[in-house]
Amino acid sequence: MGRSRQLGSRAAALRAVSAGMAAGVLAVLVTFAVVRATYETGAPAKVADAPTPSARKTPAVAPSSPVRLRCEELVARGYTYPGVVGYWRAYGRPPELDADGNGIPCEEEYAPPVIDQFWQQ
Questions:
Q1: pLDDT in tens, 38-70
Q2: Which long-range contacts (CB under 8 A, 24 or more apart) does 95-100 make?
Q3: Which three-class secondary structure state does DSSP give residue 53?
Q4: Is the pTM of this model over 0.90?
């Protein structure tokens, strides 16, 4: 009878370890999915006219897909102004993002102090 109890406790311990490992793997997968979705969508959302210390990371080379986002869409996705400039540069400075052609993209969508602060750096 002692052997049976010992096997039962080992089985319970093995189930507990397996459950813990499964929970850990699930946590890693969920974290990966959240980080990937955040990077792809430009989140977290920021208020358009609030200065922010950090910009959204942008790719070093232009993505292979054509420009599909307008300034309003970039704002809606939570891009900071530095992130918008990075997006604009990554796509080769498309004129759709710089309506008046003065080299300052999406200036109608962001507050002048935010734009001035970026370009003075």
A1: 555 555 444 444 444 454 455 445 555 566 789
A2: 96/67, 96/70, 97/67, 97/70, 97/71
A3: coil
A4: no
> Any idea which residue has 């996705």 for tokens?
77
Q: What is the dihedral of CA 56, 59, 60, 61, to 10 degrees?
A: -140
Give the DSSP per-residue string, 24-49: HHHHHHHHHHHHHHHHHHTPSP--TT
Q: Which token pair is 94?
A: 């498309």
CA 103 to chain centre: 25
> What own/partner pairs with CB < 8 Å and gap ≥ 24 does 102-110 have?
105/71, 106/71, 106/74, 106/75, 106/81, 108/71, 109/48, 109/71, 109/72, 109/74, 109/75, 109/84, 110/48, 110/49, 110/75, 110/81, 110/84
The whole-number pLDDT of residue 46 equals: 45
Q: How far is CA 65 from CA 61, 88, 109, in A?
A: 12, 14, 24
Q: Which residue has the higher pLDDT, 1 or 46?
A: 1
- Report the alpha-carbon distance of residue 119 to residue 23 in Å, rounded: 47
